[in-house]
Inverse folding.
């Protein structure tokens, strides 16, 4: 329960702006001037009444003036509100409905004849039921509750300051106050099960892992038999074959190697475009893909790191531990780089890529998640690949075909994809009505490369 | 011939491979916004606010029937006023109010009784006040917010002020009719002006 004292210390504003912007924890008075029109008509009635010598008009004029006096007499009472917000689930899963109840009690001694409340619903949360706003009148010690539901989406959602507007009974003066409450809930999607067959590029590190290399040696899976050479271990000799033919044969197993992979998410606001409301944000699709890929790679024993094209530095060094899995999940869910940021923020794709190159082991692969809507990312990707970080691109398709401009953007994006593929970079072009596994399978099938 | 050409062009656009590949998941979404797509904020005032405006306005119109012209003018004003409030339009609300008040003044000039004038003016003020309040509630809180209690309290307060002042004015007027009516009215006006002047400081 938090108490917010509002009243005597409020600054009085002399000017009367049409729209007041009040900072958190602040308040301001505003004259609505709503009775001015009535005064004008009262004076007009007076003039006409005197001119036509009609007593009725003069009486009406007196009534109008009484109203203008009424507007001046009343002023909003000191406001002392106790506000309590309860959130049904502080850690919801994506898509869950979070019920928010806001109870407001008039702790002052005087009744509030006109109290309007607008709860500060978190920026990116959509209200799915009920209303976060109410207009009511509260007697002293009386309270009211509003309840509404929010559909939880990924990320940390902090409630904005609540806005309370108190008008006096005539409505002539309104006092606008902004009350900071600082509630929040966090929605962290789980990493999904290892459902994807991530098509990594052929790799040649020396560490044992799960990616089958196209080479025979130590491993578990049968690869081939070859002629015995001096120095082959006894246990590896294929005795059946030797007995049958008389020649010594040695069994070779498929060598499996682990790969270090950095997931690179294009989280620039300029890349967060979407064809329509139904398709969802491209940033969310990037992150969804990153989650699926990360889960599958970790399950196969690869070391997975994370970086982002963003004004915020986001870097999680590649690792394969369970702890790292949790860290990865949290970073993908709540890192500031992945909250929709300032549209004008200047993100240097090149310097992010350069930092990434300094941080990555020289043989690490990169999987880029980007809609490929501009040439910066295209060129950076080519450069990363050229520097030995073999790069795979997962590209959610954000383009629409409703206008010629949109079609042009769509064609440009396809040309970028074609150029990447010509340079040997596999690109999964992921349409929004398609599963990621399907898009990835197209790389595997070799059609895309 | 030219018709056929046009038709075939239209067909080929519909089957445009690019358009087909990149069609949106829900092509209806652009034309027909669903609830999920609709991010606009419905600012229309509450039905109760509109209803109180119309009722108070009708009272005012009924009191102006002394002159047919005044009644028609105030009724037209009330219509514009009601439509303005329903749509949340401040401009229509203002014009409607002006029409309603003009009708009331016309009735007064045509010789309506003091009691009728008080009812007409009071009704017009309540109609304007209820409408303005409903529009501001709509703009600030939207159509989805519960506003009944605030609306009732506000309109009731304005109605009570109108009734009390109206009855007082009528009593003073009636009392003074035995003596010098004009003097009494003049005194009342002076008192009211003084009142405003005092409050202005």
């Amino acid at each position: 329960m938090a108490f917010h004292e509002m009243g005597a210390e409020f600054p009085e504003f002399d000017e009367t702006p049409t729209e007041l912007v009040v900072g958190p924890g602040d308040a301001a008075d505003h004259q609505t001037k709503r009775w001015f029109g009535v005064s004008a008509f009262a004076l007009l009635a007076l003039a006409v009444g005197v001119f036509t010598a009609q007593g009725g008009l003069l009486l009406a004029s007196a009534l109008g003036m009484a109203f203008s006096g009424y507007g001046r007499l009343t002023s909003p009472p000191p406001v002392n509100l106790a506000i309590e917000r309860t959130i049904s689930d502080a850690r919801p899963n994506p898509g869950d409905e979070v019920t928010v109840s806001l109870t407001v009690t008039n702790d002052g001694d005087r009744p509030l004849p006109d109290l309007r409340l607008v709860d500060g619903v978190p920026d990116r949360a959509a209200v799915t039921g009920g209303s976060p706003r109410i207009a009511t009148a509260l007697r002293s010690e009386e309270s009211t509750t509003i309840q509404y539901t929010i559909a939880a989406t990924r990320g940390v959602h902090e409630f904005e300051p609540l806005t309370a507007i108190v008008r006096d009974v005539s409505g002539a003066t309104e006092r606008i106050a902004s009350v900071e409450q600082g509630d929040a809930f966090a929605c962290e999607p789980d990493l999904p099960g290892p459902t994807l067959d991530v098509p990594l590029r052929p790799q040649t590190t020396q560490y044992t892992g799960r990616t089958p290399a196209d080479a025979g040696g130590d491993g578990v899976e049968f690869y081939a038999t070859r002629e015995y050479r001096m120095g082959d271990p006894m246990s590896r000799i294929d005795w059946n074959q030797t007995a049958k033919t008389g020649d010594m044969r040695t069994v070779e197993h498929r060598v499996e190697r682990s790969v270090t992979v950095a997931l690179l998410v294009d989280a620039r606001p300029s890349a967060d475009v979407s064809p329509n409301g139904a398709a969802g944000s491209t940033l969310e699709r990037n992150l969804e893909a990153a989650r699926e890929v990360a889960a599958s790679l970790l399950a196969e024993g690869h070391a997975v790191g994370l970086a982002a094209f963003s004004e915020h530095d986001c870097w999680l060094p590649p690792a394969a531990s369970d702890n790292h899995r949790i860290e990865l999940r949290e970073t993908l869910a709540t890192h500031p780089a992945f909250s929709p940021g300032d549209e004008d923020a200047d993100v240097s794709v090149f310097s992010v890529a350069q930092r990434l190159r300094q941080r990555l082991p020289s043989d690490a692969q990169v999987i880029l998640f980007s809609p490929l809507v501009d040439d910066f990312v295209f060129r950076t990707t080519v450069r990363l690949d050229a520097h030995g970080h073999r790069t795979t691109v997962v590209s959610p398709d954000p383009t629409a075909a409703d206008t010629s401009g949109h079609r042009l953007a769509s064609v440009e994006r396809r040309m970028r994809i074609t150029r990447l593929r010509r340079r040997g970079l596999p690109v999964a072009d992921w349409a929004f009505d398609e599963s990621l596994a399907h898009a990835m399978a197209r790389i595997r099938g070799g059609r895309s490369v | 011939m030219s018709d056929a050409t046009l038709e075939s062009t239209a067909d080929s656009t519909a089957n445009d491979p690019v358009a087909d590949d990149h069609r949106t998941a829900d092509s209806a979404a652009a034309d027909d916004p669903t609830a999920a797509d609709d991010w606009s904020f419905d600012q229309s005032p509450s039905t109760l606010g509109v209803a109180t405006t119309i009722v108070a306005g009708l009272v005012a119109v009924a009191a102006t029937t002394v002159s047919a012209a005044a009644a028609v003018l105030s009724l037209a004003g009330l219509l514009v006023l009601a439509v303005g409030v329903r749509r949340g339009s401040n401009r229509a609300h203002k014009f409607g109010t002006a029409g309603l008040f003009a009708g009331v003044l016309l009735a007064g000039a045509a010789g309506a009784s003091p009691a009728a004038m008080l009812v007409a003016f009071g009704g017009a003020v309540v109609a304007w006040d209820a409408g303005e309040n409903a529009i501001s509630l709509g703009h600030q809180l939207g159509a989805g917010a519960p506003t009944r209690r605030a609306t009732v309290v506000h309109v009731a307060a304005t109605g009570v002020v109108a009734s009390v002042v109206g009855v007082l004015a009528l009593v003073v007027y009636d009392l003074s009719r035995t003596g010098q009516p004009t003097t009494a009215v003049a005194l009342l006006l002076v008192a009211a002006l003084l009142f405003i002047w005092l409050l202005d400081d």
